[in-house]
Amino acid sequence: MTAVEFMKKVEVNQPINPRSPNYELLDAALFHATNEERVKFKLPAFVYHPIIHKVAKGHSEAMIELDFYNHENPYRPANKYLQDRVLQQTKLFRMMGENIAQHDILGGDDNRFCFKTPSVAGSDYVFLNCETKKPERSSMAG
């Protein structure tokens, strides 16, 4: 499915319930919105890969569970670096990079973005995965 086809889906164009969002739909929306922008700049669209999604989801959940915000997991040495997390799942990828961002959709001012780009000049990524997750906090109840 292309980004344009995805954005035409009825469920994509419904209001988001900030207290109970559809995280799978948000993941897909972020993925397709990224591809929509890439097409505008004549860049190839990213390709979805379920293993990359699993890795991204695992790191996102670890950041929430262990209360850190970083490319490196300081609490789980086996998962410290992106390469560690990916290579535990597959040897398919030679080059890796990740971007992490945080935005509070409930109106807070906690907006953080962190980018890690390829170390090889002129290289480009083929796969992208997006993971959205909101931490469960007692202050959000109600």
Concise summary:
Helices cover about 30% and strands about 5% of the residues. It is mainly alpha-helical and about 140 residues long. It has a two-stranded antiparallel sheet with strand order 1-2.
Overall description:
There is one protein chain. The chain contains four helices and two strands, in the order ααααββ. With 142 residues, the protein is mainly alpha-helical. It has one domain: 3-Layer(aba) Sandwich (Pathogenesis-related Protein p14a). The protein has a two-stranded antiparallel sheet with strand order 1-2. The longest helix is centred in the N-terminal third of the chain and has 18 residues. The relative contact order is 0.18. The C terminus is likely disordered.
How is the secondary structure organized here?
Layout: H1 3-7, H2 23-40, H3 50-66, H4 82-87, E1 99-102, E2 112-115
Number of helices: 4
Rg, please?
A: 16 Å
The end-to-end distance, rounded to whole angstroms, is 37 Å
CATH fold description: Pathogenesis-related Protein p14a
Helix percentage: 25-40%
Please list the strands of the largest sheet in the order they lie side by side: 1-2
Task: State the order of secondary-structure elements, H for helix, E for strand.
Answer: HHHHEE
| CATH structural architecture | 3-Layer(aba) Sandwich
Strand portion, in percent? 5-15%
Unreliable stretches (pLDDT < 50, length at least 5) are 110-118, 137-142
Quaternary organisation of the protein chains:
single chain
* Overall pLDDT confidence: 77
